[in-house]
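Bug #77: duplicate submission created two jobs. Keeping one. Sequence:
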Amino acid sequence: MMHRKDIFVFVLTTLTFVACAVRDDIPYPIVEGAITAFEVEGQCNEDDNGFAEAVIDNQERTVDVYVSDTVNLSMLRIRRFEVNNDATIKPQADLCYNADTFPSESFSEPAEGYNSCVNFQRDSVPFTLHTYQNYEWVVRVHQVVMRNVQMSGQVGDAVIDPINCSVVVYVSSKQDLSKITVQHFDIGGQHGTVIPDPTTSETYDFSGMCTFQVFSPMNDRAQTWRVNVYHTEAAEVTTASAFPHSTAAYISGEVPMGTTPVVEYHAQGTSEWTKVNEAQVTLKGRNYIAALTGLRPGAQYTYRVTGGTSVTVEQTFTTEEEQQMENSGFEEWSITTGQSGKDLYQPWAEGKTPYWGTGNPGATSVGNSNSTYVDVPGRGRVANLQSKYIVIKFAAGNIFTGTYLKTDGSNGILGFGRPYTSFPTKLRFDYKYQSEIINKTGGDWKSVYGRYITQELYEGLKGQPDSCSIYIALGDWEPEMYDGKEYPYIIRTKPKAEEIHLFDFNDKHIIALGQFTKGSSVDNWTTETINLDYRVKDRQPKYVIVVASSSKYGDYFAGGEGSLLQLDNLELLYE
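Kept job's structure:
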């Protein structure tokens, strides 16, 4: 039989053991570490004709940047490296100039005493971001070396081998190899120096193999290059192919070296040729691309291209038809009953196939719809999107092309996007906006470990005017499966790091994008236009995504209660 004291010691020991066991079994919070901004010296776009932001893929955890040939990859300085959630940055030590002095926190410029130089000669350089877990990222630096060789009588592009430091050029059989005029000889890139420089003399003797010393910032020492020029009986020809949009088309191909392409076209039913302005033709070596603008949607055109004495056969293309989105005036609505017994507003007529969706199925699981319609004299019905605090969570009024799929707890799963294959240039709409002061910053978005994730991220917005947001994206996303059906883009708002998936404006599948925000009230109906910026011109959209919200940061449950966006007459323009 145990004495009272023994029982007390037993219980205390047991509780201590249990407490320790519970503490050891509690997992760390899931807090994802992600790179939000990255910049290195010499950063440029793919053509080295200007600066371009790094391409950050949050799903693949990759960063891609381009740099000019002015930098040496073996010791490249990182100028900006920003991460979220106060993650610690851990580079691979043997690739750093000095791993002990590499900044371990976000920086927009390394502080004095720190060295951010890294060897980026590898195809991909790993970085570990540490929060409560480790997140492995890779950075790929692509050096843009614009090597170019052009000389008289040249047939085809020069064969340039930077690995073996050799160049082979073919010229017409009529060209005297001992008297070749060299227009371009950038075998060391745009910023390299070649000795001797064959472009400084009227002609240069290439009747035998020639060697050149090449000095460039990207190499530590001079390189010896070998250049051979041979005769060929091959004839140069001009080629052309068309990629039509709705009001434009892009003709691309090759022309004989040293010639400027002349691109001409005419509409079906006419015979008079229109010559494309030289300012709309880009020529690099033998390759060209010409922009034909001001065309009619759904019309057939004939084109031809002349390069020197070589002319293509006449070819045709048909521009894409105009397409508009369904119910884009928001006249059609139906009202059913939500899970809470409240009215569930749906932006489609009863019995019709939905085109637009809202977050109302989630809102009406506990409260009222906050995306509704109102009748406006002289206009009819308009979308009425209001930000509200619904029982347990802040919710922005919203409407989007797509479908509300499921309520997951107090969060939503959405299927963004509708089929679309045309090429508009703008989105026009009418709107009014009542901006309230931001008083909710996601404090109710709380993980099971008591960490208010969005409150930390957006607390600084409190007291500022709320902003409405409208954006449009055209893309060729690969459909995702959900519950046995395909959807262009799945959105998950659940805050767990492994589950949340919001719209990524850097997504590589985006073909064109346009955005609009307004951070102040607009009391009268106003017409606004969003320009679509085409990131690529040779891919056709599969889907259109349009999203409108009364609070810009509504995805993160942040905004001002009562902010109201009224929206009408969405129209895609083709100009």
